UniProtKB/TrEMBL annotation, chain A:
Feature: compositional bias, Polar residues: 416-441
Keyword terms of this UniProt record: Activator, Cyclin, Nucleus, Repressor, Transcription, Transcription regulation
InterPro entries with a match to the protein in the record: Cyclin-like_dom, Cyclin-like_sf, Cyclin/Ssn8, Cyclin_N
Native organism taxonomy: Eukaryota, Fungi, Dikarya, Basidiomycota, Agaricomycotina
Protein name: Cyclin C
Family designation: Belongs to the cyclin family. Cyclin C subfamily.
Low complexity: compositionally biased ranges: 202-216
The keyword Transcription regulation is assigned to this record: yes
Ranges of Basic and acidic residues composition bias in the record: 179-195
SMART domains reported for this sequence: CYCLIN (SM00385)
Location(s), subcellular: Nucleus
TrEMBL record, chain B:
Molecular function via GO: ATP binding; cyclin-dependent protein serine/threonine kinase activity; metal ion binding; RNA polymerase II CTD heptapeptide repeat kinase activity
Keyword S-adenosyl-L-methionine belongs to the record: no
Record EC number: 2.7.11.22, 2.7.11.23
Catalytic activity line of the entry: L-seryl-[protein] + ATP = O-phospho-L-seryl-[protein] + ADP + H(+); L-threonyl-[protein] + ATP = O-phospho-L-threonyl-[protein] + ADP + H(+); [DNA-directed RNA polymerase] + ATP = phospho-[DNA-directed RNA polymerase] + ADP + H(+)
Family label: Belongs to the protein kinase superfamily. CMGC Ser/Thr protein kinase family. CDC2/CDKX subfamily.
Keyword check for Nuclease: no
The Protein kinase domain, residue ranges: 33-408
Protein name: Cyclin-dependent kinase 8
Length: 449, 479
């Protein structure tokens, strides 16, 4: 469903909590550190984006693929699957879901190119393997394929796009104007009729029913009086549009958008509803711009001349035309207007800003790397850094090692691995419990080593 | 167990274990449902009538608490074993836990979002045709229409839409389990035109149209265009509730659009007789009004018991160019008269406007008023029909406006829940065949009695042969 997040599968079935997120990662955490796992997620997101770009997909399908990938690993472990095959299948399904389908063969060939760059040899480059993975992926996603992204929420909140764009033929202001005009006309007509009937002139039957949709039977009394203010507000709010509400300048919007792009490397899409993520991004963007622009004031704001962008002045006139309160003037007032739970908002903000430090360690941006070199670290320190270094190369190696160790552990005769469990679970007694016990047992053993 | 190796390394393929685990947990269609017979087939695959079998665990779980569900039952119901009990149970069970009836127990539903049902409930199972390479089944990816149907039906829930109970993947094929509907608009029309030879009683007709509009209004207010409304796709269950089916061409219009907008994905939408003039004239950007035109056509068909604009479809010629649907446009103009400039100012911008002009002249009279008077005496009904047949898509009545039309208040209105209430007519039940259906696995007869397999036909082939000639197949062009 596209209009109501609250009744969507996304809201009802796919928002989880941090503890259950941790539980779902227990098996993987036996084979790597939490930080390494975090980096692996950055690594996989990077691969999804590269593959998406090569297939000429836009940001939304790529984002959908990222969320599918994250959801898949709520139920599975990286070390018990082939993440590269899963990742390609996510892109393949997401392209279909977002109505920009790509052929299965081009997914396979482009994935081969992307994975070659990283020296990844695990990916089976066969169309039917990918098609098969698609089936299993759909199943593990519980066939819930509609994802609500924070991009749309961001555009609504900042007033760039009304929440109901394309749904109604006219804007709220126009509709309000038209209904008022019709009411006046209807009133005039009625007055005339009553005057005519007083003069005993038989009134002409109306040739066509009034075009006003409210004007059938029951509602005639309401047309008599002027529309009550409360009812009018309710009708306008029922339109659900945000025309004339938001006031965020183009720079902040731009930064918020980029932050949203980055959030797909984190878990926030499994934890928070999209509007919280969007407001968090705006909050961070506000902070960043106020830090940079602390010396200069609002006059430095840049604004494109795009007709879509509503300036504060049009916002004010819109709200005036509708007889609503004036739009908020400052960033704080604007954010306060949403009345979201601050604890949730800041937890989300925290989750987003955590990313940047770890990301920098994983894939250092070139500029900072150079400045570090200029600073001239001691040779020993340099070597030490080299030892600790965890980048895409190490990530690729770690994935291989994790799978290898897991397969060995599962196949070991002393450990009732999956191989044995599979036979036993066909029986009657609690195979599920024993499986879980065994795997945590392995974990303890490894930890003691 | 022979361990599969990963190409290019000496490692064991983890997917081997993953697949084995999932295959073990999966419910199978034939263990869950008993196939009663074959209903129809189309380009997408086949539809079967089926009944839900008793749950293998129902006897043991009826007394026990859901938390101590035996593992065999958990396995049979494909409840994930070694992973978290799905992030959803905490949220979704809140509303469901008070119900202790095992049949409504959320744990006995196979997946979050699946619908509960009880033993003996009847369903229509749609099996998508699996991909084949020669004689070997392969995976070539789920079709776009299959993906859409799964995606939308899993999200949308409304009284007037066919509810999807669950999706099962098995043997490289997709099975969608829908609620069963005994009748459809086409069959009702057919019954009146062929058997009783009487018009559809007007209270029934009014409620049929009203419930159809309710469903379409729900779709439109959720940004979904159906794009294939026609009598065969609109079902009615035995309780007299209209159920809109087949969302295979439907799509969200809020999604990021391909380079050329809605037109980009599907070159041809809506079955020819129900296709709106802006589509015939090649509009690249169209609106929910295309569904409204189809509803107008369906309204007229319910009144007349035959299609109002029964044009011949121009076939695609050798080139990839789409032909202009001259005959269909002519049929519309025969009834409504040619388009006048003031009726549709935007027509001059339509890509096929010049073709439309050059393939004229179209006959001038507008026989619609007389056509209507022969069939109904309600002037409000005529008003509704003409507003659905507005040439200009911007002026055509929306579903929301149509629902408020005074015609629906006539003759006691549409308050009755069942469309059949007060009617003495009994409609025949859906024909189900036990003949060979080209799919040995899904046969309702024991394999020994079933006929040898026939090559599956790719043409529309309903079980009742006399309906075949009535409906042109929907043309779909995929990517």
């Amino acid at each position: 469903m596209s209009s109501s997040f609250w009744s969507s599968s996304h809201c009802l079935h796919w928002l989880t909590t941090r503890p259950s997120l941790l539980i779902s990662r227990q098996v993987d955490l036996q084979y790597c550190t939490p930080k390494q796992l975090y980096c692996l997620n950055i690594f996989f997101t990077q691969l999804i984006q590269k593959l998406g770009k090569r297939l000429l997909l836009r940001q939304i399908p790529i984002a959908t693929a990222c969320v599918f990938f994250k959801r898949f690993y709520l139920k599975n472990s990286i070390c018990e699957t082939n993440p590269y095959l899963v990742l390609a299948a996510c892109v393949f399904v997401a392209a279909k879901v977002e109505e920009t389908p790509v052929h299965i063969k081009s997914v396979v060939s482009e994935a081969k190119v992307v994975f070659n760059e990283y020296n990844i040899k695990l990916f089976p480059a066969e169309a039917n393997k990918l098609g098969e993975m698609e089936f299993y992926l759909l199943e593990d996603l519980d066939f819930h394929l509609v994802i609500f992204h924070p991009y749309r929420a961001l555009l609504h909140i900042t007033g760039r796009e009304p929440a109901d764009a394309g749904k109604f033929p006219m804007s709220r202001v126009d509709e309000d104007h038209m209904i008022k005009k019709k009411e006046v006309e209807a009133k005039k007509k009625k007055d005339e009729e009553s005057r005519n009937s007083m003069l005993n002139v038989p009134s002409k039957p109306s040739l066509s029913p009034s075009p006003n949709i409210n004007n059938n039977g029951k509602d005639t009394e309401e047309v008599d009086e002027d529309e009550k203010e409360a009812k009018r507000i309710r009708r306008l709010m029922g339109r659900g549009s945000t025309e004339g509400i938001g006031e965020v300048d183009e720079g902040v919007l731009q930064i918020s958008w980029f932050i949203l792009n980055d959030t797909y490397r984190t878990d926030v899409h499994l934890l928070y509803p999209p509007y919280i993520i969007a407001i968090s991004a705006i909050y961070i963007a506000f902070c960043l711009t106020s830090m940079n622009n602390s010396s200069s004031n609002s006059s430095t704001r840049t604004r494109t001349s795009s007709t879509q962008v509503q300036s504060l002045s049009t916002s004010i006139t819109t709200n005036q035309a509708l007889g609503l309160a004036a739009p908020p003037s400052g960033a704080a007032e604007f954010l306060a207007g949403f009345q979201v739970n601050l604890n949730v908002l800041f937890a989300c903000v925290q989750d987003i800003i955590c990313l940047y430090a770890i990301w920098e360690g994983f894939e250092p941006s070139s500029i900072r790397h150079q400045t570090k070199n200029l600073a001239g670290l001691g040779e020993d320190k340099e070597k030490e850094k080299e030892k600790e270094k965890f980048g895409p190369e190490q990530a690729e190696a770690l994935v291989r090692k994790m799978i290898e160790s897991r397969m060995i552990d599962m196949g070991h005769p002393n450990n009732a691995g999956l191989n044995q469990t599979s036979k036993r679970s066909a029986g009657t007694t609690g195979a599920s419990a024993s499986n879980l016990d065994n795997s945590s047992g392995i974990g303890k053993k490894r930890a003691r080593k | 167990m022979a361990a599969a190796m990963v190409p290019g390394s000496s490692m064991i393929d983890p997917m081997h274990y993953y697949r084995a685990k999932r295959d073990r947990e999966r419910r199978t269609v034939l263990k869950t449902y008993k196939i009663l017979g074959f209903i129809s087939s189309g380009t997408y695959g086949r539809v079967y009538k089926a009944v839900l079998l008793p749950s293998p665990s129902s006897s043991s779980t009826s007394k026990s608490n859901k938390s101590i569900l035996p593992s065999s039952a958990r396995a049979a119901l494909s409840i994930p074993k070694d992973k978290l009990p799905s992030p959803t149970t905490s949220t979704s069970s809140n509303s469901n836990t008070p119900i202790l009836d095992p049949l409504n127990n959320p744990e006995l539903c196979m997946r979050p979002g699946d619908l509960p049902a009880k033993e003996g409930d009847v369903f229509a199972i749609k099996k998508f045709k699996p991909d084949k390479e020669g004689d070997v089944l392969t995976y070539a990816g789920i079709s776009q229409s299959g993906a859409r149907e799964i995606m939308l039906n899993r999200e949308l829930n409304h009284r007037n839409l066919t509810a999807l109970r669950e999706v099962i993947l098995e043997d490289k094929a997709i099975y969608m389990v829908f609620e069963y509907a005994e009748h459809d608009f086409l069959q009702i029309i057919h019954h009146h035109s062929q058997t009783t030879r009487t018009p559809i009683p007007s209270p029934t007709l009014r409620r049929l149209l009203h419930q159809l509009l309710c469903g379409v209004h729900f779709l439109h207010s959720n940004f979904v265009l159906h794009r294939d409304l026609k009598p065969a796709n609109i079902l009615v269950n035995s309780a007299g509730v209209v159920k809109i089916g087949d969302l295979g061409l439907a799509r969200l219009w809020h999604k990021p659009l391909a380079q050329s907008g809605l037109f980009g994905g599907d070159k041809v939408v809506v079955t020819i007789w129900y296709r709106a003039p802006e589509l015939i004239l090649g509009a690249k950007h169209y609106t929910a009004a295309v569904d409204q035109w189809a509803i107008g056509c369906i309204f007229a068909e319910l009144l007349a018991l035959r299609p109002i604009f029964k044009g011949d479809e121009a076939k695609m010629d050798g080139k990839k160019q789409l032909p202009f649907q001259r005959d269909q446009m002519g049929k519309i103009c025969e009834v409504l008269g040619p388009v006048k400039a003031d009726q549709w100012p935007g027509i001059v911008h339509m890509p096929e406007y010049k073709t439309y002009l050059s393939s004229g002249p179209y006959p001038n009279p507008n026989p619609l008023p007389t056509w209507y008077q022969h069939r109904s005496s309600s002037s409000q009904g005529y008003d509704l029909l003409t507003r659905l047949f507005e040439w200009d898509p911007a002026r055509r009545l929306t579903a929301r406006e149509a629902l408020a039309h005074p015609w629906f208040q006539e003759e006691g209105g549409v308050a009755a829940k069942s469309v059949f209430e007060g009617s003495t007519i009994t409609y025949p039940t859906r024909r189900v065949t036990h003949e060979d259906n080209g799919d040995a696995k899904m046969g309702s007869l024991p394999p020994s009695m079933a006929h040898p397999r026939l090559p599956s036909s790719s043409n529309f082939r309903p079980a009742s042969a006399n309906l075949t000639a009535q409906q042109p197949a929907r043309k779909k062009t995929r990517m």
